[in-house]
Amino acid sequence: MRWRTPAAATTTDSALKTPVDTPHSLWLIGLYRLFVASFLLWLGTIAPGDPGFVPASTPGFQFVAAGYLAFAMVLAVLARESAQAPAPLLEYQVIGGALGDILAISLVLLTAGGVETGLGLLLIPAVAATAAMTSGRISLFVAALATLMLLITELVIGPKLAWAFTPAPTQTGLLGATLFVAVIMVWRLARRAGISEDQLARQEEDLASLAELNAQIVARMGAGVIAVERNGRIRSINEAARRLLPPRAGRTLQELSPRLADALRQWQREPRLPLSVQFPGDAEQTELEVRLAPLGFAGEQGTLLILEDATEIKRKAHASKLQSLGKLTASIAHEIRNPLGAISHSAQLLAESPQLTVSDKRLLEIIQNQSARVDQVIRNVLSLSRGRPAERGRLVLLERLERFAEEFCGALQLRRDALHIRVTPPDAEVLFDPLQLNQVLWNLCHNARVHGGHDNPGQGPIVLRGGAGQISRAATLDVIDAGPGILPAQLEDLFEPFRSHAPGGTGLGLYISRLLCENNGAALEYVQHPQGGCFRILFAPVDDGSSPAERGPPDLGDSK
Questions:
Q1: What is the DSSP string of 217-258?
Q2: For all residues of the chain together, what is the average pLDDT?
Q3: Helix ranges, 386-495 (H)
Q4: Closest CA to 232 of 250, 214, 244, 245
Q5: Count of other CB atoms within 10 angstroms of residue 470
Q6: Structural Rg of the chain based on CA atoms
Q7: Which of 209, 385, 400, 538 stands the most exposed, by the fewest C-beta atoms within 10 Å?
Q8: Residue 402, Cβ density class (10 Å: 0-12 exposed, 13-18 middle, ≥19 buried)
Q9: For residue 378, what pLDDT band results from cuts at 50, 70 and 90?
């Protein structure tokens, strides 16, 4: 037998499980028992003399009714205090109450005049209540015991008393059969109710677990999620949405973001509009991409808004594109190495000829130097595609720029004053791979010379202006040309590979330069400058907590 307590009621046998809360049911049965006992006492005290009911033994009937009332009071008090009682004690109360009811009502029938008085029907609620709280076996046992007491009362005890009555076996048999029918029906209903309650409890647990899981998932989503009711009140919002929206307090969408609330109202008025809305960034919030979806049928429960950082989406798309194009570039670079090796080897063989003039030797030197530079560029691209870290070292920026200027001007046969270098303070240091820094500077200065008009006579020099900042000793380097600058419409795909606005350009120079900067923990960006075009390198702080192994060896010059 299983009992339901306030905390839990679980069993593997659904036939033994009751669908009711036993302490509460005991209290209700106790109140019913008090009412029945009070009614019987009233019949025995006030009703005598009424021709409608005359007990066979008035003193005995009154004594039994009074005793039954006292018994009912005791069980009612016990039921009231049984909220935290253990299961065995509840079992004893149910069985004891059923046995007390059977005995009391049997004595009532004995003193009142038998089954013919109709008081035997009081056994039906008592037996049925027992069936609702106990197993089938105990319920049938109680029904059998009640029927047996009826038979004993009618056939054995009654004729021996002074107030003997005429036995009514037919009515007794019908009442006994009614008790069995009531027990079976109530028990089966209780069993079905118990099974339904089990299923409902499991469904509630599953729904609660699912709701908690959904809440955890939504709370940890990178995208912002807002559930808004039809009146604009926010039902739920996760932390990601709060980070994307302006830092305001409020319980309505209008209070948090008026622009978002206006877009929601417009979408609700015109449901044919796109489900995705772009919000440009401003001083309060970043650029957002908002997707809207109705909640419930036709949005009767509100609207679901999913917020995503549009800048982050673009960054991820850009990173994916760069990764794919980086592999393609690495493949192209790998194919270039074969003809480049042939060119370099042929130049070495030609340099051994005794018939070369001074001018020819100069040209061969340029071929060999540029072949070596292209080979180093290919090595850097392949190193990036393979995920190799840069060999960063502490470089004195002014010294590095002076070496680069000599190499750049010598290779292109330019005057030294074609590059103007200014570094403040002169001992400013940066953390960068020296060979990769040379390649970045070569690409930027080459672009400045070609697109900035510095290949024309009389044009001003290319300015390399750098120095250390005031925060964490971070340094910057600006490459400034005297050209017209870059148009705003061209800024979006400025660093895109294979995107060039110059005739014959490949668009790989700035792309590779930015990859090399990112590979060294730096950043490359274009900034507006009053004197012309300007590309700025933002170096990583030198004192960034990196280990000596990460910093690399001190700069000892280029090793060819």
A1: HHHT-SSEEEEE-TTSBEEEE-HHHHHHS-S---SBHHHH-H
A2: 76
A3: 397-411, 434-451
A4: 250
A5: 6
A6: 48
A7: 209
A8: middle
A9: confident
Q: For residue 336, with 0-12 CB atoms within 10 Å meaning exposed, 13-18 middle and 19 or more buried, which class applies?
A: middle
Q: What percent of the chain has pLDDT over 70?
A: 75
| CA–CA separation, 529 and 104 (whole Å) | 106
Q: Are strands 419-424 and 462-468 parallel, antiparallel or unpaired?
A: parallel
Residue with tokens 């979006």: 492
In this predicted model, which residue has the larger pLDDT, 158 or 480?
A: 480
pLDDT category at 200 given cuts 50, 70, 90 is confident
% helix / strand / coil in the chain, to the nearest 5? 55, 15, 30
Tell how far CA 551 is from the center of its chain.
Answer: 39
527 Rama sector, left if φ>0, alpha if ψ -120 to 50, beta otherwise: beta
Instruction: State the alpha helices, DSSP H only, in 280-357.
Output: 310-351
Which stretches of 469-548 are assigned E, i.e. beta strand? 475-480, 523-529, 532-538
Nearest to 546 by CA among 421, 406, 391, 426: 391
Asked whether the predicted pLDDT for residue 506 surpasses 70, the reply is no
Cβ partners under 8 Å of residue 502, min gap 6 = 450, 451
Read off φ and ψ for residue 529, nearest 5 degrees.
-140, 140
H or E, element range at 303: strand 302-309
d(CA 414, CA 149): 126
- Residue 283 has phi, psi (to 5 degrees) of -70, -20
Mean pLDDT value across residues 76-98: 76
Q: Among 130, 131, 40, 141, which residue's Cα sits nearest to residue 94? A: 130
Model confidence, pTM: 0.40
pLDDT value of residue 16: 36
